[in-house]
Each structure stands twice: as structure tokens, then as C-alpha cells.
Amino acid sequence: MVLRKEFFDLPEGVIYLDGNSLGPLPRNAKARVAEMMQDEWGAQLIKGWNSAGWMAQPSRVGDMVGRLIGAPAGSVVMGDTLSIKVYQALAAALKMRPDRKVILSDSGNFPTDLYMAQGLIQMLDGGYELRVVAPEAVADAIDDDVAAVMLTQVDYRTGRVHDMGAITELAHSSGAVMIWDLAHSAGALPVDLAACACEFAVGCTYKYLNGGPGAPAFIYVRPDLADSVDPALAGWLGHDAPFAFDLDYRPAPGIERMRVGTPPVIQLTALEAALEVWEGIDMQDLRVASVALQEVFIREVEARVPELTLASPRDAAQRGSQVSFGFENGYAAMQALIARGVIGDFRAPDIMRFGFTPLYLDKADVLAAVDHIETVMRDRLWDDPVFMARQRVT
Ligand SMILES: *Cc1c(COP(=O)(O)O)cnc(C)c1O
Q: Residues 183-233: pLDDT tens digits?
């Protein structure tokens, strides 16, 4: 049993199918942040870095995230945003293979991951190349020129899942470093980083981990490499002795070297509270519950809403924790749904995306959501100028 509805503070009348983009507010996070503001920041002022444990928080919370992704204690640290952590992992990976010049990724990757690679390549100015192939072509594109394979396990648009173990093995057999982005995996499906043996993994915590808008990212470095990787961003809090204030950078031992600057304590406090929901939850059980919800959703939508075309893999094993449907007027249709309290989102050009998070959704919610989708489509409720105007965030 993984349902924890009472843990979350969801507005009345809302069916929230967008936890894959921004998880809802955990009640205890609200209380904990209020306490932290008053009792720690308010009362302890700068002493809080020691007395309230703020300085140790990035590794403490990193271990909590690590448990959800099969990473041993001391191999994950929190900080910055996912874009920054992608950059750091990629820069560190390239340093490990100085004789190779290719970064391999796929066209299903989230654009910021590709942009960070492009920016890094430009800055290094060392003849590097970003090779982007179709997701199905990744395995064949791994060759001896590839320094790093950088992939997101679950496609943000379609939910298609890469086989982490198999691709990592291929990367390693041709001598490449493997970086996994777990943005749509952490808290969504079982991940076993220790078994996968990839060198780096990164991810964010405001999606399935419910850390709130702007919650910090995480980075994992395989323990046997943590004392030797180049952290790429030489910030003072990744220094071996930040408070010695040396003029020269010297990386800290272990995962701490991947820290950069001052941690976002308020966000980490919200995240630390949010992560308590996972106590006693088996990720395999969560996965089973997620798949069951998705299967009901797909079956009902396909039976009752012929206008929508499944854009996710039909095989549940090939899907993360979201289901996408293609529809020409998907943006307006999603806006019409949101106006009725069914919140999903839209990804260009035509994808209506629905996330399934069994922590706070059950079968009744899914069936109620499909009722709304059927009404919106049957009555063409989307065909209204109010729903056509694009907002800044889709
Ligand atoms: C959500 C997401 C991001 C977002 O990066 P931020 O720096 O946190 O804004 C990056 N990559 C992937 C694969 C994502 O799904």
C-alpha cells in the first residue's frame, strides 16, 4: 500500500496529474519550513550553520535521496539546479577521457541537458562534438570516439524508458563514461545506481520528490571515483577546507567536492520534510501501483476519447510514470481540463502529458479525470479563445 493522501495538502476539487513536473505541497514541509524560519533562522541567526546543521544538510538530504535510487550513503549530494549538475557531471566525465571528443545523447533528452553540453563544448574549445541520435539508435551509436554517454532515463515527453543497465554496459565496454539524468525517475520508479555502475547520475527534486518549486538538484558520483573526479565548478564549499580560506582551490575528498556554494537551506528544509513520505515505501510496490493507474487511464481514454492518440509506449515496462497523448489542439484541451480541476500539462508540439503518482492518486481519481477528458473532447470545450492563449509556462 503506497497511498499517502493525507501527507499532501492538495486543493479541494483538483485531480493532480502533474506531479511529474511539480510535486504537490507536503503538509509537514509547510510546518517544518515555518519552524525553521522561526526557530533556526530567526532565533539562531548565523549560528544555525552549526547549531541547526545547515552546513551538513546537502549530504544528509543527499543520503535520503540516495536511498531511493540505490546509491550508497555518502555518494549523493544536493545543490544548485539540475542544469548545473548536468554541466558538472559532463565536464568531470570529459576530463576522465581526454583522448575522446564525442558526447553522445539522444533527441528525446530534455533540451537543457543538450544546451549545457553545447555550452560546455563551446567553452572548452577543444574540438568536442555533441552527437544527438534518436533514442532507439543510442546503442548502435556508442563507439570508441565517445567520451561520455549522457542520457535521461525517462523521456520527458513520451515517458519512454531507457534500459540503464544495458546502455551503461555498452558504454563501458567501449570505454565511455556514463551519465544518467534521473529527473523523471527519482521517486517514480525503482532505480539501482549501485547495480548499474554508471559513473554519474543527476536529477531534480521538485518533480516526483515533491521538494517544491526551485528545490535543489542532486548529483551522484560512483564511490570509487569520488576522490579523483574533477568537480569542474570549483566553489568554496567543495573545497577541502572552506574555512581555511586558502587562495588556491583544493577539492574536498569524496562527494563533498561536488558542492559549489552556499546551500539553499529553506528549500532543503522543505525537501527534507517532503522526503519523509518515502519511509516504509517499497519502490517496487510504488511501481506496481503507478503502472496499474496508467493502465486504467490508457484503457479508458482509448475506449472513450478517440480523438486522442497514445504517444507513450504501450508496453508498461517501456514507460515511466507518465502517459502522454497526442492531440492537435492539445494546448487548448489541457487548458480546458485545468479549468475543470484536472491538472496535467502540455509539451510542444502536441503532447498532453499526465503524470501518475500513486502517493496521492487512486483509481477513482483516474476515472474521474477520464470523465472530464471525455466531456472536454466530446463537447469541444477546448474550442474557446480563452484556452488558446499561450501562457509563459505550458
Ligand atoms: C526537469 C528537467 C530538467 C530541469 O532542469 P533545471 O535546471 O532544474 O531547471 C533538466 N533535465 C531534465 C531531463 C528534466 O526532466
A: 999 999 999 999 999 999 999 999 999 999 999 999 999 999 999 999 999
CATH architecture designation of domain 5-25+282-388: Alpha-Beta Complex (3.90)
CA-nearest residue, atom 13 of ligand 1: 110
For the CA of 183, the nearest atom of ligand 1: 15
For a mutational test of ligand 1's pocket, the pick from 22, 78, 83, 112, i.e. the residue with the most ligand atoms closer than 8 A to its C-beta, is 112
175 Rama class: left (phi>0) / alpha (psi -120 to 50) / beta:
left
205: helix, strand or coil: coil
Q: What is the DSSP letter of 251?
A: B
Domain ranges of the chain: 5-25+282-388, 55-278
Q: How far apart are CA 294 and CA 363, in angstroms?
A: 9
How far, in Å, is the centroid of ligand 1 from the Cα of 51? Answer: 33
Which residues are registered as beta bridge partners of 8? 26
Give the whole-angstrom CA distance, residue 340 versus residue 331.
15
Instruction: Please tell me whether the overall predicted TM-score, pTM, comes out greater than 0.70 for this model.
Output: yes
